[in-house]
Amino acid sequence: MQGANHLLQLVALVTVLGWASGLRAALVVFALGASALAGWITLPAPIAWLGSPLVVGITSLLAFIGFLADKIPGVDSLSDFTAAPLRVVTGALLAAAMAGGSHDLGTTLALSGGGLLAAASALTKLATRAAINTSPEPFSNIGASLAEEIVVLGSIWLALAHPLLWCIALAALLLAMAWLLRVSLRHVRGLLSRLVRVFSGRGERAPSPSAPPSSPPPAPPAAPAHSRIADITDVQVVGGGTSTDSRS
Length: 248
Prior knowledge:
- By secondary structure, the protein is mostly helical.
- 69% of the residues lie in helices and 5% in strands.
- The protein has 7 helices and 2 strands, in the order αααααααββ.
- A hairpin with a 2-residue loop joins strand 1 and strand 2 (241-246).
């Protein structure tokens, strides 16, 4: 039973670090280091140095810079795009370190799973923020950023305190991410299509209300009906006699 609980706790930590790093890698590293420095958790040997005061100070500064940049429209998408590869690598390395940091199969699976989860969350964040940035007001960006920070910190706490609940929540989050990614990409693709039509001059023009509706051309007049017999023969009656003139 103890072994099953340990395995569940390990799976929860591996998945939460991979998934959360795709959203805010600096915040995840700072949360781990600060928790270790406060004595709340014990980090594995490969990443125990994250709990040193110097590293906690550096990561707190990076997390604060990310906190500010993530709430400015346009800047958030630029920072997400440039930091996405680093977030994927961070998620993979943290997940592998939690699994032991050795070269066995479990560490390899943790490295791959953490990297894939980080890539999925980073891609979803990129598409979602691109769709949000189409709105001119900044409040949606600020709200989305605050929601991400709450979810990241809350997910780490949930994985530490209730690993089974986190695994269930992760399954729901993955389904929600798939739906959100589809909706966001469709919105951004539609916006880009409209921009291309506008700048290329192929935009649809509405008909002028003063222009009269077009009517079909009048039908040509019907040809007068004649007898084919009249075209072939003419019959004349002269003084009681009958003469016939044949025409070709």
